[in-house]
Design brief:
By secondary structure, the protein is α/β, with parallel strands linked by helices. Helices cover 28% and strands 24% of the residues. Helix 5 links the parallel strand 13 and strand 14. Bound molecules: flavin-adenine dinucleotide. The site of flavin-adenine dinucleotide has 28 residues, from helix 6, helix 7, strand 16 and helix 8. This is Electron transfer flavoprotein alpha subunit.
């Protein structure tokens, strides 16, 4: 049997986030040949609708309203429910992003459905799909099969492959009008922090520093390495607590959960709370001068040494391969 799947695309600064395309990839797996409908919510989202089609959405439905310029759970909740009422899907897919984490339980409660959150892998297809998600801070994996009712799941960024983009694909784009009202919160302005570009949650490479960097200036060689690899900078809570960097960089149980292709941990001891945020990275390289450091237990490659010697050497070697 085929399923009608709706996928919520996430737009930031006028562009679709990668997790939206990965969600279309997940949708294809569970659709069993059924229709995939992309949903875009905002004040001006028509411009990116075609991109959802290029990644495999059969149709795109937009909800535009001045009150949807910035995300609020009330506003986006009302908009999504208007689309849901029209489309009556069998399956709903969101990204497991800050927005998706906030909105999905609200929608699940409204629909009185279950919610499988933070899915990192899907086994099987269509009705037989089994959702795999990490539990106990990534120490175990749970397999979930939904036997009846609407299927609603969120996917962790960077884990499920997005389909190939095909610009020749085009799909119908229609709009749903929603009367967005009774908002309990209104975002008047958004003040963004200046960052060095790459979004950590979607980065393929992360170079993270811990208390071993000794000070804010100790992050400089790590930034050079990250730039060279097209990656993002991250940190342990130890480094954030010591005021070496901003808390927005914190990775771990009480920070961000990341799964890049390559995670380089420099001067990080590997406390269990840090591992909770990065141990599912595809390849982990640890640099630590203590051969007994816990981080080496999860590392694919371990370098015992002083990060201030090792990181510049890595930079030099990588530069040679780039010539
Ligand atoms: P340290 O443990 O001090 O380790 C520094 C490491 O650097 C050492 O291994 C040392 O050998 C090495 N080093 C020193 N100098 C050099 C050098 N020159 N070259 C190479 N290596 C060097 N932590 C997180 O990271 N994320 C979280 O989300 C988080 N949440 C927490 C939640 C709770 C409730 C609690 C209680 C704690 C949490 N922590 C979290 C803190 C965690 O327990 C650790 O204290 C923290 O991760 C330690 O940071 P660190 O590894 O940078 O520092």
């Amino acid at each position: 049997m085929s399923n009608k799947v709706i996928v919520l695309g996430e737009v930031r600064d006028g562009a679709l986030r990668n997790v939206s395309f990965e969600a279309i990839g997940a949708a294809k797996t569970v659709a069993g040949g059924g229709e995939i409908v992309g949903v875009l919510i905002g004040d001006d989202v028509q411009g990116v609708a075609q991109e959802m089609s290029a990644y495999g959405a059969d149709r795109v439905v937009t909800v535009e309203h001045p009150h949807l310029k910035h995300y609020t759970s009330d506003g986006f909740g009302q908009a999504f429910m208007a689309v849901h009422e029209q489309e009556q899907p069998d399956v709903i897919v969101f990204g497991h992003t800050a927005q998706g984490k906030d909105l999905s339980p609200k929608i699940a409660a409204k629909l009185q459905s279950g919610l499988v959150s933070d899915v990192t892998e899907i086994e099987g297809e269509g009705e037989d799909a089994i959702f795999i998600r990490p539990i106990y801070s990534g120490k175990a994996f749970e397999k979930v099969k939904i036997n009846e009712g609407p299927v609603f799941f969120t996917i962790r960024p960077n884990n499920i492959a997005s389909p190939e983009k095909d610009d020749s694909r085009s799909g119908d784009v229609s709009s749903v009008s929603a009367d967005i009202q009774n908002l309990r919160s209104v975002v008047k302005d958004v003040v963004t922090k200046a960052t060095d570009g790459v979004d950590m949650s979607e980065a393929k490479v992360i170079v993270a520093g811990g208390r071993g960097v000794k000070g804010p200036e100790g992050f400089e060689p790590l930034k050079d390495l990250a730039d060279l690899l097209g990656g993002a900078i991250g940190a342990s809570r130890g480094a954030c607590d010591a005021d070496y960097c901003d808390y927005s960089l914190q990775i771990g149980q009480t920070g961000k959960v990341v799964t890049p292709d390559l995670y380089i941990a420099a001067g990080i001891s590997g406390a269990i709370q840090h591992l909770a945020g990065m141990s599912n990275s595809k390849v982990i390289v640890a640099i630590n001068k203590d051969p007994e450091a816990n981080i080496f237990k999860v590392a694919d490659y371990g370098i015992v040494g002083d990060l201030f010697e090792v990181v510049p050497m890595m930079i030099e070697e990588i530069k040679k391969t780039k010539v």
